[in-house]
């Protein structure tokens, strides 16, 4: 389950002379800032409700401490979801702690993995290759950790040319329903090569490249016609190869 990013705790406790109770805790193994952290708690094999206090806390590398907690009453054979608001916490060492009392007494603490990434940005351009004088149109789609459009974070965006020169930038740009749209008019004599769009959101950088080149019309094209379907029973697959110049005249060749 570690590959799915889940942390699962299953434990058995003796609750009486003959009874054995079980509790399970399911939560993400990864802790991200500015997210809502969900923990599922359930108990089995007990006859009374259990009060469970769930907390996430630890020490930040900057020297401060962080802790958020919430309690929930868990009926036997029923799962309850605890939602913890994780604010703008920095890198550090954090633990998930669950403590039960009443129907079952237990305490369990497990280390969490901190990952700074709390947003994903997908950058799209209207074309992959541009000629001098063309207009570059692009958009950046910002998603939060739940893959929903984010409208809370401002963006810092800049475009660099093939030599790394910054040619245009947008500071503290706001999105419309999680989408920012921009454009850049290329000059008649731009720097040719690989250009780059960089989007920064909360110190996380995302990149998208595109190419600027003088377009040269190809001298000829080659078309290969093959059957849409073929099976292993066919001993041969027949293909037709055609080639012609851009002005329509066939290209002579040999096989």
TrEMBL record:
GO terms for molecular function: endopeptidase inhibitor activity. Transmembrane segments: none annotated. GO terms for cellular component: extracellular space. Pfam families: MG2, MG3. GO terms for biological process: immune system process. Keywords: Glycoprotein, Immunity, Signal, Thioester bond. Residues 121-210, 214-254 form the Macroglobulin domain. Residues 1-19 form the signal peptide. Heterodimer of a TEP1-N chain and an TEP1-C chain non-covalently linked. Forms a complex composed of TEP1-N and TEP1-C heterodimer, LRIM1 and APL1C; the interaction stabilizes TEP1-N and TEP1-C heterodimer, prevents its binding to tissues while circulating in the hemolymph and protects the thioester bond from hydrolysis. Mature TEP1 and to a lesser extent full-length TEP1 interact with SPCLIP1; the interaction is induced by microbial infection. PANTHER family: CD109 ANTIGEN, MACROGLOBULIN / COMPLEMENT. Binds covalently through a thioester bond to the pathogen surface resulting in pathogen clearance. This is TEP1-F.
């Amino acid at each position: 389950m570690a590959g799915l990013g889940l942390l699962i705790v299953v434990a058995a406790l003796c609750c009486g002379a003959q009874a054995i109770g079980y509790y399970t805790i399911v939560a993400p193994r990864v802790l991200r800032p500015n997210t809502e952290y969900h923990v599922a708690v359930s108990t089995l094999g007990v006859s009374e409700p259990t009060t469970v206090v769930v907390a996430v806390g630890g020490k930040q590398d900057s020297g401060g401490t962080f802790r958020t907690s919430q309690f929930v009453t868990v009926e036997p054979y029923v799962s309850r979801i605890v939602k913890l608001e994780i604010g703008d916490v920095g890198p550090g060492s954090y633990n998930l702690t669950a403590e039960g009392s009443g129907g079952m007494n237990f305490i369990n603490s497990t280390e969490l993995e901190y990952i700074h990434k709390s947003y994903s940005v997908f950058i799209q351009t209207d074309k992959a290759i541009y000629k001098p004088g063309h207009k570059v149109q692009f958009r950046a789609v910002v998603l939060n950790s739940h893959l929903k459009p984010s409208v809370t974070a401002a963006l810092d965006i800049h475009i660099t040319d093939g030599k790394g020169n910054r040619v245009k930038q947008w500071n503290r740009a706001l999105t419309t329903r999680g989408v920012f749209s921009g454009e850049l008019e290329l000059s008649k004599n731009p720097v040719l090569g690989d250009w780059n769009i960089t989007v920064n959101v909360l110190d996380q950088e995302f990149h998208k490249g595109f190419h600027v080149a003088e377009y040269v019309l190809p001298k000829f094209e080659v078309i290969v016609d093959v059957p849409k379907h073929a099976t292993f029973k066919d001993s041969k697959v027949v293909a037709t190869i055609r080639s012609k110049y851009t002005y329509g005249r066939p290209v002579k060749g040999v096989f």
